[in-house]
UniProtKB/TrEMBL annotation:
Protein name as annotated: Flavin-dependent oxidoreductase
Pfam families tied to this protein: Bac_luciferase
Occurrences of domain Luciferase-like (ranges): 9-258
Domain of life: Bacteria
GO cellular component, one term: cytosol
InterPro entries the record matches: Bact_Lucif_Oxidored, Luciferase-like_dom, Luciferase-like_sf
UniProt cross-references to SUPFAM superfamilies, sorted A to Z: Bacterial luciferase-like (SSF51679)
Amino acid sequence: MKKIGFLSFGHWTPSPQSQTRSASDTLLQSIDLTVAAEELGADGAYFRVHHFARQLGSPFPLLAAAGAKTKRIEIGTAVIDMRYENPLYMAEDAGAADLIAGGRLQLGISRGSPEQVIDGWRYFGYAPAEGETDADMARRHAEVFLDVLRGQGFAEPNPRPMFPNPPGKLRIEPHSEGLRERIWWGAATNATAEWAAKLGMNLQSSTLKFDETGEPFHIQQAQQIRVYREAWKAAGHEREPRVSVSRSIFAIVDDRDRAYFGSGSREQDQIGFIEENTRAIFGRGYTGEPETLIKELAKDEAIAEADTLLLTVPNQLGVEYNAHVLEAILKYVAPELGWR
């Protein structure tokens, strides 16, 4: 059994071929797709966060709105770039959105990926400390965020406050109990997966990772998950961790699918460089008739290792079609693989 959700990158473009021609279109359709996914029985609605781009950038208004319109479905991110974040203000926003959603937020955070501008986090007022890299800064921000989510007081109260204070030091408010255990780290390497396990974060593994062994993507990703689980066990955490992987999976079940994706063809992993000296491996997508998908997906070792599967959706094709994409997987593919 697996939790199955969607992951939207939230693109918009003024092109007449796009169903999302503005930021307003993308935000409102993201809420509508979350509602539709809940009605279909999907388990999660996740959104990518990018800055300086025609994509979703500020996640918490969207998460709060989606939470207010739904009752059951998990609502999350994959991922928030911590290089851009004030961790204390983020804890306030996250706590408020989680309370509105009734404790359903699942927040994926990470060091981020290459962005649209050079060192975009500097425009947000952040810079690595002396001797730090931007990745170090992101992890430092993440550790502060995790610490304040525990709900412990740390700030000295004003002896003459405007309103009466509770006794002791003050914490970030609003505090949402349990949110600390629903933070995920998006790891691109085995080492960062191990680091996330030690800090008690769940693991998000995407459709790319650094190419550390030269093996097929799904094998490297499965190994990353096993390294993470071993580190989690060694750290002595009491709860069971969660692990998600994301995939592009499209079932060809009608003429619209054939028009968009053809009859399906054998896809392969791709190798590229997301940074100047960083070789990355990008996992293949899956497109085909349901019976073909079932056979191919059964061989994916990383999906087998994970408890949560996020299906990337082409959000510019609109809510109705993306709901159809989700329904086809939930109806024709997931049950045959034992995911439902």
